[in-house]
């Protein structure tokens, strides 16, 4: 219990630091929201002085001095009121986030879980049968695939599976004429559209889980208690899963906590490539447009989820490995 | 993990796989426009991009409106900003009885798409709305208008001063219906989800990934509108545009002949006409950029066509130092300017100018009197790769004379801030582009936009000051006589040519892709009646000029 409380106190302290950083960092970026909006418009040609003035009045500048802004920011954070987005004026930040979040949570979230489970299991198998094809094939493929950057794999998949072969749609989260509902038809349509981005994330992240699990597992397999278990004539699978894997999974579990927390941040590059309306795309829009309210909401969401996920992992650690509870 | 859990995981995966395959049957893909079985015509357009999906905002004064809001709402007069030509629209004509009054004679028989009549009161209401809400005033009519009154089917606008160029700015205002907008609580945050306008189209079905515009059957020139339905998807990637058979899209495509045209050589065409001038703007508050000989040296040192070719892959021409967009504005051009105002590359002349400014070549380097290397800093926005290509070419060409060029690339927002507050040495920017001499030249060099360094300016970013130019601009503002207007425009070109408030490089392009498969009559180099752009008012000219392909 004291362990959990200590961790909780640390969580609150880190949260405050993160929230404050979240306030400061966007304001260190050069240029105002109006500058960013004008820059966006000027890509289509000159922006007349009248438009520049109208945008300045429309977006205005944040009210008051930094301290007042900070106080009202803290108040907004506590009441979860993030105001109106600059980029998507006059839309509410909360509406934008609510619209983008489900897409990311389902697509990126599911894939992260699948990749973790699949990668860890393959890693266990590879370590158990090390030296055979069951080790070399997944390890080689895994390190090969994870060496590619996300967006490069995404572009390749987009081009071949979407464009050349035409198996899957190349952009969006659902068909052009579909209206989001919970009908079977729409869910099928959404899954069909999620296939390519999901495949991209799966392929590029699987390797890390495989390699991580395999390497720790091999170290664990050399421990005395494993030899002892084998000498006692326990079945191979029992030794691998109950004795070796349970201990070897700890580093992977930490990684999983981080990855799960990071899910709400979306998968920026993949969402960009596939025009997927998730949080990553929204974040990209917010940052390139100096959209303080939207950025603050998104960064806050990301930091809080990472911190909470880490907190939960640490608690789980305490259960899995009694030594950490000291 | 035990055996049963393995089985569960496998089952879950299999279920997901089945769902994915089941989904394969569901999708509806958009295909190109064309003639449907029931005889209606449909046009697939790339006029508006989602980010990545569409927000339903058809408020014509919102800076985040759907581009096609201007296919629903119409202005009094449409101006082709390439040539400056005006086409009367909701106003049949307008006149200026004196320099501080404009009278618009409105068209009869125009109705809103809900059946109500369009009246002079709607126009008065619209101007009052913009005066009350400067956030919505994207054309800046507020600074020109003192008051507006209706007189039968005429609208009389009293200008805030003698202001001839103001008339055409006011005339381009999109008019909204009083009977619906009078009840709007806050027009600034109003998203106008169900727009009612006078224009050729009304909103059809709207989803976040695609919407349609449907022909307004009661439109006042309905017989001129060929397409019954416009289909606008949210994602218009280059792959989509080429593959799905768009009828009209606005997109720069590299190697357009081998991508867009090859996809359907019989029908696919493109037109990439010249837009506003892309120029190097020197900071007149800093040495040596305030030195005329120095600026002349730079202008003479550059081969602008080579820069244009490098930046825009040969699709645009070098720009005239007159500040005009050529050939569209040819009739305004001062015939006395040599070579249509294009400053030719001439290394000897450049060296002579630099010598006059105090710089000489020494050991392959351009140095000042103290033997210090001459270094120029040019600011250009990060990520605008075409401009960067152009700047690299500038760097190479100036490097050949021994001048060192440092290219600074801040993020676009920071670039805007530096340009507007005057914190740069030389900045790459856009000048002109409205087709109206008063607006273009005052934005280029007028005292009206002059601000001290550190204060945000919205024009004249180089902080250029010329009493002569200001006198001409002031006169142009109050001159009703066409012949005198033309003379003043020519004198302003001479100042731009001789004083170099900016160093013209090349014309920014407008990127129009058209297909003649279903519709003909698109604007082209032979018939430049409108810019190919898909936003603002000129699309109305295109949508009312097309014919169904036979």
From TrEMBL, chain A:
<feature type="transmembrane region" description="Helical">
    <location>
        <begin position="253"/>
        <end position="274"/>
    </location>
</feature>
<feature type="transmembrane region" description="Helical">
    <location>
        <begin position="294"/>
        <end position="320"/>
    </location>
</feature>
<protein>
    <submittedName>
        <fullName>Peptide/nickel transport system permease protein</fullName>
    </submittedName>
</protein>
<feature type="transmembrane region" description="Helical">
    <location>
        <begin position="190"/>
        <end position="211"/>
    </location>
</feature>
<dbReference type="InterPro" id="IPR000515">
    <property type="entry name" value="MetI-like"/>
</dbReference>
<keyword id="KW-0813">Transport</keyword>
<dbReference type="Pfam" id="PF00528">
    <property type="entry name" value="BPD_transp_1"/>
</dbReference>
<feature type="domain" description="ABC transmembrane type-1">
    <location>
        <begin position="101"/>
        <end position="313"/>
    </location>
</feature>
<feature type="transmembrane region" description="Helical">
    <location>
        <begin position="149"/>
        <end position="170"/>
    </location>
</feature>
<keyword id="KW-0472">Membrane</keyword>
<feature type="transmembrane region" description="Helical">
    <location>
        <begin position="103"/>
        <end position="128"/>
    </location>
</feature>
<keyword id="KW-0812">Transmembrane</keyword>
<keyword id="KW-1133">Transmembrane helix</keyword>
<dbReference type="InterPro" id="IPR035906">
    <property type="entry name" value="MetI-like_sf"/>
</dbReference>
<comment type="similarity">
    <text>Belongs to the binding-protein-dependent transport system permease family.</text>
</comment>
Automatic annotation (TrEMBL), chain B:
<keyword id="KW-0732">Signal</keyword>
<dbReference type="InterPro" id="IPR000914">
    <property type="entry name" value="SBP_5_dom"/>
</dbReference>
<feature type="signal peptide">
    <location>
        <begin position="1"/>
        <end position="25"/>
    </location>
</feature>
<dbReference type="Pfam" id="PF00496">
    <property type="entry name" value="SBP_bac_5"/>
</dbReference>
<dbReference type="InterPro" id="IPR039424">
    <property type="entry name" value="SBP_5"/>
</dbReference>
<feature type="domain" description="Solute-binding protein family 5">
    <location>
        <begin position="87"/>
        <end position="441"/>
    </location>
</feature>
<dbReference type="InterPro" id="IPR030678">
    <property type="entry name" value="Peptide/Ni-bd"/>
</dbReference>
<protein>
    <submittedName>
        <fullName>Peptide/nickel transport system substrate-binding protein</fullName>
    </submittedName>
</protein>
């Amino acid at each position: 219990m004291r362990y959990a409380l200590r961790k909780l106190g640390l969580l609150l302290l880190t949260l405050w630091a993160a929230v404050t950083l979240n306030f400061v960092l966007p304001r260190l970026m050069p240029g105002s929201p109006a500058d960013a909006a004008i820059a966006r418009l000027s890509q289509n040609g000159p922006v007349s002085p009248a438009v520049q003035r109208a945008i300045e009045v429309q977006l205005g500048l944040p009210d008051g001095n930094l301290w007042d802004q900070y106080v009202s920011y803290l108040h907004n954070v506590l009441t979860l009121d993030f105001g109106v987005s600059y980029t998507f004026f006059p839309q509410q930040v909360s509406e934008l986030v609510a619209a983008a979040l489900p897409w990311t949570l389902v697509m990126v979230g599911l894939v992260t879980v699948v990749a973790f489970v699949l990668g860890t299991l393959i890693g266990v198998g590879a370590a158990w049968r090390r030296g055979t094809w069951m080790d070399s094939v997944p390890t080689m493929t895994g390190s090969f695939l994870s060496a590619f950057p996300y967006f490069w794999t995404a572009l390749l998949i987009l081009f071949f599976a979407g464009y050349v072969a035409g198996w899957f749609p190349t952009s969006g989260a659902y068909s052009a004429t579909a209206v989001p509902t919970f009908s079977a038809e729409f869910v099928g349509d959404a899954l069909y559209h999620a296939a390519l981005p999901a495949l991209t994330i799966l392929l590029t992240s699987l390797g890390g889980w495989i390699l991580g699990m395999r390497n720790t597992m091999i170290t664990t397999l050399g421990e005395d208690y494993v030899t002892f278990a084998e000498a006692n004539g326990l079945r191979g699978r029992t030794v691998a899963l109950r004795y070796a894997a349970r201990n070897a999974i700890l580093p992977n579990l930490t990684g999983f906590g981080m990855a799960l927390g990071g899910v709400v941040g979306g998968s920026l590059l993949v969402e960009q490539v596939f025009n997927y309306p998730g949080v990553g795309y929204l974040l990209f829009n917010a940052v390139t447009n100096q959209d303080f309210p939207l950025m603050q909401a998104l960064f806050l969401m990301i930091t809080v989820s990472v911190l909470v996920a880490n907190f939960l992992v640490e608690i789980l650690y305490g259960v899995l490995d009694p030594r950490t509870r000291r | 993990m035990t055996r049963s859990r393995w089985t569960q995981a496998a089952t879950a995966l299999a279920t997901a796989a089945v769902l994915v395959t089941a989904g394969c049957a569901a999708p509806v893909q958009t295909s190109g426009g064309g003639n449907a079985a029931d005889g209606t015509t449909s046009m697939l357009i790339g006029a508006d991009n989602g980010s990545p999906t569409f927000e339903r905002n058809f408020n014509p004064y919102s800076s985040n409106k759907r581009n096609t809001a201007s296919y629903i709402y119409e202005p009094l007069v449409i101006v082709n900003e390439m040539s400056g030509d005006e086409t009367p629209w909701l106003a049949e004509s307008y006149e200026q009885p004196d320099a501080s009054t404009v009278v618009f004679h409105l068209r009869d028989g125009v109705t809103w798409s809900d059946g109500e009549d369009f009246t002079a009161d709607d126009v008065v209401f619209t101007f009052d709305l913009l005066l009350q809400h400067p956030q919505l005033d994207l054309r800046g009519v507020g600074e020109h208008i003192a008051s507006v009154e209706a007189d039968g089917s005429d609208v009389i606008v009293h200008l805030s001063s003698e202001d001839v160029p103001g008339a055409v700015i006011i005339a381009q205002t999109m008019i909204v219906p009083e009977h619906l907008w009078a009840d709007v609580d806050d027009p600034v945050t109003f998203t106008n989800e169900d727009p009612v306008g006078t224009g050729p189209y009304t909103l059809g079905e709207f989803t976040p990934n695609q919407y349609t515009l449907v022909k307004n059957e009661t439109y006042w020139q309905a017989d001129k509108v060929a397409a019954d339905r416009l289909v606008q998807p949210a994602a218009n990637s280059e792959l989509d545009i080429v593959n799905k058979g768009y009828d009209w899209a606005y997109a720069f495509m590299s190697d357009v002949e081998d991508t867009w045209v090859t996809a359907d050589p019989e029908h696919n065409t493109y037109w990439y006409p010249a837009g506003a001038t892309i120029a190097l703007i020197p900071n007149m508050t800093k040495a040596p950029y305030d030195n005329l000989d120095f600026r002349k040296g730079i202008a003479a040192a550059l081969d602008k066509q080579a820069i244009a070719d490098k930046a825009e892959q040969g699709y645009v021409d070098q720009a005239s130092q007159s500040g005009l967009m050529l050939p569209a504005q040819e009739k305004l051009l001062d015939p006395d300017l040599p070579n249509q105002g294009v400053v030719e590359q001439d290394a000897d002349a450049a060296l002579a100018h630099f010598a006059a400014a105090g710089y000489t070549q020494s050991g392959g380097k351009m140095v000042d009197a103290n033997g210090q290397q001459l270094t120029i800093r040019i600011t250009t926005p990060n990520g605008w790769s075409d401009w960067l290509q152009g700047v690299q070419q500038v760097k190479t060409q100036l490097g050949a004379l021994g001048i060192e060029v440092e290219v600074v690339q801040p993020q676009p927002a920071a670039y805007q801030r530096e340009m507007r507050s005057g914190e740069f040495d030389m900045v790459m920017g856009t000048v002109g582009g409205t087709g109206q001499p008063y607006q273009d030249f005052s934005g280029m060099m007028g005292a009206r936009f002059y601000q001290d360094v550190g204060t945000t300016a919205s024009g004249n970013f180089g902080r250029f000051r010329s009493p002569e130019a200001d006198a001409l601009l002031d006169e142009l503002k109050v001159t009703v006589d066409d012949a005198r207007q033309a003379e003043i425009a020519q004198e302003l070109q001479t100042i731009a040519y001789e004083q170099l408030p900016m160093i013209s490089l090349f014309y920014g392009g407008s990127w129009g892709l058209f297909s003649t498969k279903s519709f003909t009559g698109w604007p082209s180099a032979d018939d430049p009646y409108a810019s190919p752009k898909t936003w603002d008012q000129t699309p109305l000219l295109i949508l009312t000029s097309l014919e169904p392909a036979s």
